[in-house]
Amino acid sequence: MSVDDFVKIILTFAVSISLVGICIQIMRLLGSLNNIIQDFRGIGKTAVRLVEQIHLDYKNLVENIKKLSEPIDHINHKFVQPLALLLGTVGKFATILNKKIGKNS
Questions:
Q1: Looking at residues 20-27, what average pLDDT do you find?
Q2: How far apart, in whole angstroms, are the C-alpha atoms of residue 100 and residue 105?
Q3: CA distance 55 to 63
Q4: How many Cβ atoms sit within 10 Å of the Cβ of residue 79?
Q5: I need a labelling partner for 1 at 20 to 30 A (CA). Which of 20, 24, 42, 96 fits?
Q6: d(C-alpha 37, C-alpha 33), whole Å
Q7: Residue 17 above 90 pLDDT?
């Protein structure tokens, strides 16, 4: 075995150890990437929960507004519309009377 063969063996051993080191660093990088992806998934889940809560609050707000507007709508249907019809009828009657009174004068 010559010096050249011994240097080739040492060089091969050094390259192998370097490749193992590079593989270890790549594994660490992939592990960090995995942690980052897990963090993003957690952020995504939190965002989804937040949007769902906002949607639920919006639905509750709409229902409460509908409940508050029902009495007003009830007043409109039971009081305001009949009153408007009555006043319209009285107005027509008054117009007819004014025409008759104007003709008689």
A1: 96
A2: 9
A3: 12
A4: 10
A5: 20
A6: 6
A7: yes
Taking CA atoms, 62 is separated from 59, 69, 74, in Å, by 5, 10, 18
Rounding to the nearest 10 degrees, give the CA dihedral for residues 60, 62, 67, 69: 160
Residue matched to tokens 């009555």: 86
Write down the pLDDT at residue 79.
75
Q: Is the dihedral of CA 44, 45, 48, 49 positive or negative?
A: negative
Distance between CA atoms of 32 and 62, rounded to whole angstroms? 45
What distance in Å separates the CA atoms of residue 68 and residue 87, rounded to the nearest whole number? Answer: 28
Tell me which residue of 88, 84, 66, 65 sits closest to 76, measured CA to CA: 84
